[in-house]
Specification:
CATH topology: Double Stranded RNA Binding Domain
Distance between the termini: 51 Å
Mean pLDDT: 86
Largest sheet: 7 strands, mixed
Shape: elongated
Helix content: 25-40%
Oligomer: single chain
Number of helices: 5
Number of strands: 7
Radius of gyration: 19 Å
Number of domains: 1
């Protein structure tokens, strides 16, 4: 039954309308403006895994991993101290960055939630259902030349509502838009903090 629910949920996320909200607290960071600062090329490695309910941890398939990796590439490349981001180890780079995203996904957290989810299934999401996801994003920076490194962690809580009634809000809180904005904010926050803590990284 749980496997069927997971498959059904995956289909709904792809085919149905949904909106998503993200909640996170980022440390205050201030990037010092330096017109002469050299922009760096980052070599990015990225991995992603999730645990749904009480099921075993599952590593994301390549298409999902690549989609998230591309989002992080866009986020990092928009930072003022980054020249470009590469994913090929054979490419020229100045700085290594390994990002790991681990998520715990909850379909429902109470009996009432289970009942409402069941009703949502039966009504083909005419009654919206929600999915909660707690994600831990680990940024590990390393500069081989200066032999400096640092590890930073960001916590993000996503709440996604799936259903027909979410259509009017999709232009403002669509799943893709929320995820893009979240990855941008947490990536810039991590980069700024890394520059503050380990100037030799850059």
């Amino acid at each position: 039954m749980k496997q069927l629910n997971l498959v059904y949920l995956s289909v709904l996320l792809v085919l149905s309308h949904c909106i998503s909200f993200a909640k996170y607290n980022l440390p205050e960071t201030k990037l010092t403006e330096n017109a002469n600062a050299e922009k760096k090329i980052i070599l990015l490695t990225y991995s992603q895994a999730a645990t749904v309910g009480d099921r075993e941890r599952k590593v994301a398939d390549e298409s999902d991993r690549k989609q998230s990796e591309d989002r992080f590439v866009r986020a990092l490349q928009s930072h003022p101290r980054v020249l470009s981001v590469v994913t090929d180890p054979q490419s020229k780079y100045d700085l290594k960055l390994d990002i790991q995203l681990e998520s715990q996904v909850s379909l429902y957290s109470s009996t009432l939630g289970m009942i409402l989810t069941g009703i949502s299934y039966l009504t083909l999401t005419s009654l919206p259902m929600d999915v909660e996801q707690d994600s831990t994003i680990t940024f590990q920076f390393a500069n081989e030349k200066s032999k400096s490194q640092t590890i930073l962690v960001r916590q993000v809580h996503f709440r996604t509502w799936i259903g027909i009634l979410t259509i009017p809000l999709m232009p403002f809180y669509g799943l893709n838009g929320t995820t893009e904005k979240t990855f941008l904010n947490v990536s810039h926050s991590a980069l700024n903090e890394a520059i503050e803590k380990q100037p030799k990284l850059f």
